[in-house]
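Appendix B. Extra example for self-study. Work through it before the problem class; the solution is given directly after the inputs so you can check yourself.
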Amino acid sequence: EVQLVQSGGGLVQPGGSLRLSCAASGFAFSNYAMSWVRQAPGKGLEWVSSISRSGDSTYDADPVKGRFTISRDNSKNTVFLQMNSLRAEDTAVYYCAKDLTTTATTFGNDFWGQGTLVTVSS
Amino acid sequence: EIVLTQSPGTLSLSPGERATLSCRASQSVNSNYVAWYQQKPGQAPRLVIFGASFRATGISDRFSGSGSGTDFTLTITRLEPQDFAVYYCQLYGSTPVIFGLGTKLEIK
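Solution. Structure tokens for the complete assembly:
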């Protein structure tokens, strides 16, 4: 059974930093690209970042470019999202998600973590 | 940047009825990279359709996807109580990944 278990998140002041983790099990983690998608309170889904299977390539949405860094540790089946210079508009539930296929980075997602709330407020 | 417009914003139907949800792209897109997700309150999204018309694992055959070019449709036949949720369309395959704003399917 595919499982993505998220940790991290919480309340942070504007300008602060936070690191999210997503531990995967039930599939060959190193064979799949991974992504982070967020959802502001009462709003829709917004793609944040993605990382290739090997971790050599990363992709970021413009609102987070230069502030957020996605990474992965294939030896620990875990993907991370390091969030720096946080702003109020980064307040959202953050989801990690597994890519659809092993053959390429499609940026489509067939399994999602449970989500973790990040609140940026003073 | 491509924009996905979903309509209607809210769809009120009764169990047993047929739901038709629309997703229109601002320019022609590759249908191989259109997906639909279902999200219930307090839950993570769940993949329903990928590649415009392929059902995800475990999804009922009451769900079907269609479309090409700029117009895509998610159809749910014989609505059941567990189908009522918010549905998002997504354009993937390259970045930025784009989501529509969603259609809320509510019980009438």
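Self-check: The longest strand of chain A covers residues 18-25. If your reasoning did not lead you there, revisit section 3.
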